[in-house]
Write a sequence for this structure.
């Protein structure tokens, strides 16, 4: 095999390792405050540690409808009227730096570390 | 290749790319991560570039992206696939002549990385939430894996088509 090919194999292997490592690292970073935003505008902010009873938030994003389930320590999109359903399949978010995204509706749910004011 | 023959061949490639694109859209995402997909339609872009040329590959890609959004997607998906497709195409154009045909998987992986970068960048701009850049690492991983796979697929397809034509 040519030397050039070997260099590229090494480079791609490095990307794979770094990518998986970073992904796992980001998933383990913490926080308990879920921030729901549509089109970059924050629409709701929930401290998941203060939730005692599960409840639902119905969001009309202007591009479509999403129903968000808030339960103690977790948040999930349980319904979306978009075709891909990726946000629903992403399941519960319990922490970590990786947001739930519903691309067609411009909806993002992120976990942040900070306390809620007031 | 004669002009008419080339036109017919390009139309055929566009139809094949479009069919692959539409069928791939019907397959449920293998992992629940936004943006991760096989990108099988890029096989056709690569094959067109090798068999016909860069300009022709650009034309086939453009037609596939526009018609793909009409058949399978929505206006919002058009923006993402156009941004991704354009960057992937540029990456292919810049690298394809630097590698021989057996190294097509390298070209393809680089194109897939460029595609995912373009798509994620557009997404971050559209939702105005930089937080979704947290997907960059996993999209890089998926780009390398799917790019290598589609690159090998394209290489074998190019060989088969060359043999068929002779």
């Amino acid at each position: 095999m040519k030397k050039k090919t070997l260099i590229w194999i090494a480079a791609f292997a490095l990307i794979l390792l770094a990518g998986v490592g970073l992904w796992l690292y980001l998933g383990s970073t913490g926080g308990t405050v879920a921030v729901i935003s549509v089109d970059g505008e924050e629409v709701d902010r929930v401290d998941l540690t203060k939730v005692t009873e599960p409840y639902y938030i119905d969001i009309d994003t202007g591009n479509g409808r999403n129903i968000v389930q808030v339960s103690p320590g977790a948040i999930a999109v349980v319904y979306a009227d978009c075709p891909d359903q990726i946000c629903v399949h992403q399941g519960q978010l319990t922490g970590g730096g990786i947001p739930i995204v519903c691309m067609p509706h411009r909806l993002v749910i992120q976990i942040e570390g900070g306390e809620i004011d007031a | 290749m004669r002009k008419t023959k080339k036109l017919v061949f390009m139309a055929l490639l566009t139809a094949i790319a479009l069919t692959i694109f539409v069928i791939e859209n019907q397959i449920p995402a293998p992992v629940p991560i936004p943006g991760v997909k096989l990108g099988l339609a890029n096989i056709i872009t690569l094959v067109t570039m090798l068999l016909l040329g860069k300009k022709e590959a650009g034309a086939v890609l453009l037609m596939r992206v526009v018609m793909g959004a009409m058949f399978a997607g929505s206006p919002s998906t058009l923006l993402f696939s156009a941004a991704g497709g354009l960057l992937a195409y540029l990456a292919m154009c810049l690298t394809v002549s630097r590698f021989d045909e057996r190294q097509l998987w390298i070209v393809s992986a680089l194109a897939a990385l460029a595609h995912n970068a373009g798509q994620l960048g557009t997404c971050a701009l559209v939702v105005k939430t930089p937080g979704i850049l947290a997907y960059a690492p996993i999209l890089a991983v998926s780009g390398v894996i799917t790019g290598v796979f589609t690159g090998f697929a394209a290489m074998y397809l190019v060989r088969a088509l060359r043999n068929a034509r002779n």
